Amino acid sequence: MLNLLPSQKIKELRLNLLTQVIIRAAIAVIFIFLILVLLLLVIRFFLNINLDEAEKDLKNLQSRPEIKQLGDLENKITELNKNLVFLNGAYQKQTGFSSLLEKITQATPAGIRLNSISCEESGKVDIRGYAQTRDALLNFKETIEKTPYVSELSFPTSNLTQPTDITFYFNFKLVKHEL
């Protein structure tokens, strides 16, 4: 094929052809974009309709008496669970003071009268009482020292100044895990 057009004219024709191709491609892209936007709008419209229907169904279900009763039961169960967690925490924190009192009274020999036993949450136990004789008091002290739940026994020497009719006091640290 023979081309008799001048090179300037050929360049213009190619430029026109390229411009037409670019314009057609841009129009095609814009057209596809508009179709996609329209498609998304239609999908959004149908989703809104389905959402409205689902909300109506949910309201209808929630208005049923059975569902209301289930909601009330769930609330009661939640409250009971909170109470159980609280009680479990309190149970875990408790110290066996009743067990301690039982063991101390069993270890108390004749001739010893306990006036007070105070127990702190830190595990410190103070005991005050009356002993008829020094021997009875020393026997009681030895018995308490030998028990596995006692540590750091503090027994003042002032408890031993009188041979009879002794008002005594001492304290010790309670070993909780051994009670």
Describe this structure in words.
With 179 residues, this protein is an alpha+beta fold. The chain has two domains: 8-90; 97-178, Gyrase A, domain 2, CATH 3.30.1360. The chain contains four helices and four strands, in the order αααββαββ.
The SSE string, one letter per element, is: HHHEEHEE
Rg over CA atoms, rounded to whole Å, is 46 Å
Count of helical segments? 4
Estimate nothing, just give the exact number of structural domains: 2
Give the strand tally: 4
Give the SSE layout.
Layout: H1 7-62, H2 65-93, H3 97-107, E1 112-119, E2 124-133, H4 134-146, E3 150-154, E4 164-174
Short description:
This protein is α+β, with helices and mostly antiparallel strands and 179 residues long.
Kindly list the characteristics that best describe this protein.
4 helices, 4-stranded antiparallel β-sheet, 179 residues, alpha+beta, 2 domains, Gyrase A, domain 2
